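Suppose you are handed a protein chain with no further information: no name, no annotation, nothing but its sequence. What can you learn? This example shows the usual starting point.
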Amino acid sequence: MLTVPFLPILLLHVVLVAIFGILLPYRRGIGFLDPVMVSAYACMGLIFSAPAAVDAFAKSRPQSMKEVFRRVGLAAGYGEGLALLMLMLGTVTINFGRRGRPRLPELDILAESGLLGIAATAAMTLLAGWMTLRFSAGRARLGTRALLFFLLLEFWLHSARLPEAGLAGTGLSIVISGALVYLLYREVHPH
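A reasonable first move is to predict its three-dimensional structure. Written in structure tokens, the prediction is:
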């Protein structure tokens, strides 16, 4: 049986998917497939994965790195799943009722932005997990929100450069993830 807190969360998800997967793409029309918009949607997973990671790590302290990776994988998969759902639904929305061939995002932009989104989501999820174990869930939420605010500000100021930053951002995210895996290892196995 579903618990009561599940229903408001489900409703929030339905509203978010409706806004970002249907309403916004419908209003933007073919402009939804602009490389900047596609890149932004591909990177939305980190917005959803950070709070999920904080919640996952706040419940109990992981006893092994296998458990750490399972929690990170679930939180990152959740965030990336929502981002992919919204991007796919947005693409379907702008093609709905159109005659002729379907319009799709540029595949090279989609691939590079997708890699960036996955790598950045992994890094953000690892960061949220480490901050939760090292400090507290409250501080981890505050820290990830501050970082997300900074990234949003950066996007607002320099959004035109996002499609070009895909591979470089992916590399940076991978390096950051590696450092965070080491820090998480030190938290799980202190010596």
